[in-house]
UniProtKB/TrEMBL annotation:
Organism: Medioppia subpectinata
Domain Glycoside hydrolase family 38 central, residue spans: 28-104
Protein name as annotated: Glycoside hydrolase family 38 central domain-containing protein
Gene Ontology molecular function: alpha-mannosidase activity
Gene Ontology terms: cellular component: lysosome
Keywords: Hydrolase
Gene Ontology process terms (BP): mannose metabolic process
UniProt keyword Hydrolase present: yes
Pfam name, any one: Alpha-mann_mid
InterPro entries per the UniProt record, alphabetical: Glyco_hydro_38_cen, Glyco_hydro_38_cen_sf, Glyco_hydro_57/38_cen_sf, Glycosyl_Hydrlase_38
């Protein structure tokens, strides 16, 4: 037992042990820590954006929660997975990153379903409309 870290260090130094020297570059793993996998991070932001829009549209259209909860829960769960420390930083293995991508695509599609339902409901309330247009959801409209 040592009374302080200083006493411990003094005792260890008094033993005159030599320690192995390591020549490993530990920094290479962390280079790009927050900059790698930008497409995955972008997809995470897009999915979260569409999730928030879906939540707002479902409230605006006063959709029945029993018909939208499953979609919204799926979108929320898939976005939540990306909060894992290996997910958002991009330090996960490629196979795991591929799984995150697949999950985000699933969440994105689920949130889009809610937006479609809300938009369809809001559009049907317009009794003055003479021409009915088919709506198309374009993911690349505002890039």
């Amino acid at each position: 037992m040592y009374s302080s870290p200083n006493c411990y260090v003094k005792a260890v130094n008094g033993l005159n042990h030599s320690f192995d020297e390591r020549n490993v570059d530990y920094l290479s793993y962390w280079v790009g820590y927050y900059a790698n996998r930008p497409a995955l991070k972008y997809q995470d932001r897009l999915t979260n954006n569409i999730l928030q829009a879906g939540k707002q549209m479902s409230v605006l259209a006063r959709l029945d929660p029993s018909k939208t909860t499953a979609y919204m829960d799926e979108a929320r769960n898939e976005v939540a997975v990306m909060t894992h420390h290996d997910a958002i930083t991009g330090t996960s293995p490629q196979a795991t990153s591929d799984d995150y991508t697949s999950r985000l695509q699933s969440g994105y599609a689920a949130a889009k379903q809610v937006i479609r339902k809300a938009y369809s409901y809001l559009k049907s309330k317009d009794s003055e409309k003479k021409v009915v247009l088919n709506d198309v959801y374009c993911d690349f409209l505002n890039i």
